[in-house]
Amino acid sequence: MSLVEQLLVEEERFAWKIYSDGELREHYESDMPTPAISIIEMESIDAAKARFADLPIHKAGLLEPQYFELRPFMNWEVLFRSEFRTRT
Fold first, then answer.
1. Spatial distance between the Cα atoms of 30 and 43, rounded to a whole number of angstroms
2. For 37-58, what is each residue's pLDDT tens digit?
3. H or E stretch covering 58
4. Is the pTM of this model over 0.70?
5. Which of 6, 21, 38, 58 has the highest CB neighbour number within 10 Å of its CB?
6. Nearest-angstrom CA–CA distance, 44 and 50
């Protein structure tokens, strides 16, 4: 088994652990060069960075995670304000 294959096994164990702990909400892969997109639930980006510093592929220097804070999409709120509702 290659180093990358070993790391992927460790990575999947890590993913299962954080999913079981309620921190990993969604996980996606694509045909793009980036390996994956994960939606995680943490109190802050700093907390996420600290928690995910132990990702096996990241620790091996093969992945540089990027973190983005997600917020609710509020533009739909306009549709539900009474002044914008369609009268029937």
1. 27
2. 889 999 999 999 998 888 888 8
3. helix 56-59
4. no
5. 38
6. 10
